[in-house]
Amino acid sequence: MSASPLRSANRPPVAINAPLRLGLMLAVLLLLLPLALLWGEGGFYGSLRPLWDSQADASLSAILWQLRWPRLLAAVSVGALLALAGVVVQNLFKNPLADPYVLGVSSGAALSYLLAATFGLAVPVLLASLGGAVATLLVLLLLSWPHLRQIERVLLNGVMLSFGLSALISVILVLSRQTLTQSLLFWLMGDLAHSQLRYWPVLLVLLALAGLSWHWRELDVLARGNRFAEKTGVAVRRLNLMLLVSAALLVAAAVSLAGPIGFVGLMVPHISRRLVGFSHRYLLPAAAINGAILLVLADTLARSVTAPVQLPAGAITALLGVAFFLVLQRHGGWR
Amino acid sequence: MTAMAAHQLQPMRQQQPLFEPLDWRVDHGQFWLLAGANGCGKSTLLETLAGLHPEYRGELHLAGQRLHSWASRARARQVSYLPQHEEATPDCRVREALHMGAYAWGQVDENRFQTVVQALGLAPLLERSLGHLSGGQRRAVELATSLMQDAPLLLLDEPLNQFDLAFRLRVLDFLQRQRHKAVVMASHDLILTPQYASHALLIFPDGHARQGKIADMMKRDQLAALLDWPQTDALDRLWKN
User: How far apart are CA A159 and CA A102, in angstroms?
Assistant: First the structure.
């Protein structure tokens, strides 16, 4: 090889096989699903049989398909939605500390749900929080419209909005009835027990993944900076607007399904980047799968470890995620 | 063919023009050296030509069409720009970074990729991550990325600063060989670059600009005025006439 003026380190670089790793992640998720289904209060049900034979244990079968399956689907989709939103938000704001909740959308969702619950309105959780989320998104867009190129200002708007709404939430929590406060607090920590939508959220995940992946080249370029993207030929203003809206909608959907579950949107993108590298071609699907895995694990533990008392899924998610991230940090990722 | 034409151009900063109105035309096959003291407006001029600095007076045409009528992607196929400082980059691999340069074309031209990698000697670095490169190596990757964009007009803002002499010669030689392209390079280097450039645009401290063939521009008196430096023996030794 000809001498190069740019010397390389002696250690040869390790190329990562991102498609292989994606496949492995998907396999882990698929293996996890039946295990999570059969994992209950008393630990693991000794046999896989109830999965396909409803006669084997009729009561268990009902629990599996009426209670655990919808909940599992909710965990999969909420985890994936939050992780995708996290990738988008971190790209948009070029800030590793950004999580999907900086947009204020989740606080808006929580606030409108709390208001509905406090005043005893007969609105389903889903609609109440979705309404709040969309309203917040509109406010954010109105505030940010002139600054779509200076995205830091959008970030500031979102954070301010978020703080304001959170303050209102605290006020409402203090003023509402004690029994209500208890259930509201639980919801605020993330609660997957109530989603009955089954396949719709999964479909939304697939659509979002496909839509974002369609733009993976733009996302790669944009991640290197707004000015870099602009000079390289990306229509930055339009792309930023699209990302802002899609992140907000993903968060709105996730929060409406299960309350504001923390950590997934912040850390799963980081974990996934360490596993498959920088390019959004692999990062987006990896984040979706890892988000799903993390939330399935967390929710399964949350509902079984101290049964019949249920722990908040959000807390377990954070505990598991932090542990995993620290291990990964220590034992190297892709570099 | 004309790559870029400016008519009575005045880039603005905080509503203040940076220099006197400028008439300037850059043709394909020309290699322009853009020189002037710090703060005279070289960088802003390049930024303006790249379409990233919309505050200016006068008219600006890129490949015969008004600069701001170009859509982002089409413009990026016409003009490639290397700023003095790139934004802090996330940790991608060198190969990925280079591929991004070709974004406007939709796909990476493998020939172009090989040419650029070979010209700048980047082959040993391709699989390494940007975060692990030295400052000079990183700058080489940034330069290569803007070369991957493969536009007929190339705007380079002090691309040589962080390189050693051998690598500077390597870059200058490569740029000189791009005969079908127009190159504009802002630089403080008035020794080496003039050996390769065909033309020069000098921006003087009083805001006047002068342009012409490189041999006519690199005159002792003129450079003394450009640098606002009294004529000394040192200047005499560098530029004979």
Answer: 5
Spell out the domain ranges in chain A: 18-25+67-330
Task: Give yes or no for B121 touching A (CB within 8 A).
Answer: yes
Residue B135 CA to residue B130 CA, distance in Å, equals 10
Q: The complex's ipTM? A: 0.91
Sequence spans of domains, chain B? 2-84+150-238
pTM for the full predicted model: 0.88
CA pair distance B229, B211, nearest whole angstrom:
20
Q: What is the pLDDT along chain A (335 residues), one digit of tens a residue?
A: 344 555 555 454 556 788 999 999 999 999 999 888 888 776 677 677 777 777 767 777 778 888 888 999 999 999 999 999 999 999 998 888 888 888 888 889 888 888 888 887 777 778 888 888 888 888 888 888 877 777 888 888 888 999 999 899 888 888 877 777 887 788 888 878 777 777 888 999 999 999 999 999 999 999 998 999 999 999 998 999 999 999 989 998 898 888 888 889 988 999 899 889 889 999 999 999 999 999 999 999 888 887 778 888 888 888 888 888 788 777 754 44
Judge contact between A308 and A185, C-beta under 8 A: no
Residues 6+ away with beta carbon under 8 Å from B228: B37, B205
Is A18-25+67-330 in CATH node 3.90.45.10?
no
Say whether residue B84 is in contact with chain A using an 8 A CB cutoff: no
The answer for B 128-187 residues in CB contact with A (under 8 A) is 128-129, 131-132, 136-137, 140, 149, 164, 166-167, 170
In this structure, which topology does domain B2-84+150-238 adopt according to CATH?
Rossmann fold (3.40.50)
| Measured distance CA(B52)–CA(B201) in Å, rounded | 21
Interface test with A, best of B44, B47, B49, B72 (most A CBs within 10 A): B72
What is the interface size between A and B, counted as CB pairs within 8 Å?
107
Nearest to B143 by CA among B189, B175, B104, B96: B175
- Which residue among B81, B92, B121 sits closest to A278, beta carbon to beta carbon? B92
Cis amide linkage into residue A312, ω under 30° from 0 = no
Flag whether residue A97 sits within 8 Å of chain B, measured between CB atoms: no
